[in-house]
Amino acid sequence: MSLPKLRSDLEQINQELFKIILHRREVVEKIQSFKSKDGDFPFYDEKREKELFEKIQADLEKLTPKELLAFSLLIESQAQIGDERNYPSWFKGDVLKSTNPNLLF
After folding, report:
1. Domain spans of the chain, in order of start
2. What is the DSSP track for the chain?
């Protein structure tokens, strides 16, 4: 495989990553809108967060500290779209502390 081909592959991956991030934000906004209209669902559900972490824990453990930080910041910034004050900080490790302390950096 050539260097130009690898660079081209990386550029394509970057474009796909950007699209996924933006799509994720759109879905989060729809969920938060639903929660605010319905009123029966809290913006932050600790049980649901723990379940999500358990599902992705093995993948999180494969990340470098900087990759984990980037992922955490992405999740936190999007989750706070609806209610920043009541959502725990992933960056500070609020959620990670309750699931797997080995993931803290």
Report:
1. 3-103
2. --HHHHHHHHHHHHHHHHHHHHHHHHHHHHHHHHHHHH-SS-S--HHHHHHHHHHHHHHHHTS-HHHHHHHHHHHHHHHHHHHGGGSPPTTTTTTHHHH-GGG--
State CA 10 to chain mean position distance. Answer: 22
Please give the model's pTM, rounded to 2 decimal places: 0.75
The alpha carbon of residue 84 and the mean position of all alpha carbons in its chain are separated, in whole angstroms, by 15
The amino acid sitting at 83 is D
pLDDT of 99 strictly over 70: no
Residue 96: pLDDT over 60: no
In this structure, the chain runs to a length of: 105
Cα 103 from Cα 105, distance rounded (Å) = 6
